[in-house]
Amino acid sequence: MERLTEKNQMFKLHNHFDVARLLGHPAFDHLAKACLVYSEVHDHNLIDPSVHDWSKCFDYQMLLTKLQRVELEACVHAVVLFQAMMEKVPYFVPTLCKELKPLKVTGFRESWDTLLDQTNSDDKPHAKDAFSKYYTDFYKGMRNPIIHGRDESDIEKVNSIHTALVHDGMKAGWSAYDYLLTEAFRANGESHEPSWSSICAMHYIPEVFDSNKFPNLRELSGIYLKRYEDGLSAATDAD
């Protein structure tokens, strides 16, 4: 009888919130992987090119290019998965309380705007600003070039994606998400605490990014290459 009971305790998703969690947590896992790239940057003391002899800068530039590829791959996965989660949010949040009406629109921005407009609290302007930032910087600036990009300019936009941008976009999206959960729980006489700090801690991600610790590796790689080329040119002229 015990074996039969254990066999029947199968894993099962119960609602779209469960689906959103399956998408959201791996997105943060990939962001954490992108963050880990910078451990190697710091281990090799690559933040400041001027401390290295020019003759070593080519090898460091090659290392940075390799690390940037790892970073970009992780960032792309984070963008796609997080956006997939954000597309689920407007449809499961109304199921948490009767005050929010189910949506009849299907467009991504329209669904969020419609749901946000149903709320009425002092934090609403901040939530709308956060979503607007997310939509512009993350959805249109990164997600669309990855998923729908057709032109060479879209490839350049993908190449420009880096950890700090993804972190900033996810933070804005999470802020809007936290607001909707707060409103839904408040309507039920319950409370919801902002969870950006806890989700970052859970995945070992900094809450706030220090640009000095997380520089743009693509730009840094270019600086190392120029330092090498200038040093090589000067050495050749001296000969």
Task: List the topology elements.
Blueprint: H1 2-8, H2 16-43, H3 57-92, H4 108-117, H5 124-148, H6 152-159, H7 163-187, H8 196-202, H9 217-238
Helix pairs in contact: 2-3, 3-4, 3-5, 3-7, 3-9, 4-5, 5-6, 5-7
Structural features, described:
The mean pLDDT is 90. This protein starts with a helix and ends with a helix. The protein has helices at 2-8, 16-43, 57-92, 108-117, 124-148, 152-159, 163-187, 196-202, 217-238. By secondary structure, the chain is mostly helical. Helix 3 packs parallel to helix 7 and helix 3 (57-92) packs antiparallel against helix 9.
**What portion of residues belong to β-strands?**
under 5%
Q: What's the N-to-C terminus distance?
A: 87 Å
Major β-sheet profile:
none
Parts with pLDDT < 50 across at least 5 consecutive residues:
none
| Helical content class | over 70%
Shape: elongated
List the secondary-structure elements in sequence, H or E.
HHHHHHHHH
Tally of DSSP β-strands: 0
Mean pLDDT metric: 90
Q: Pairing-aware structural class of the strands and helices?
A: mainly alpha
Q: What's the tally of helices?
A: 9
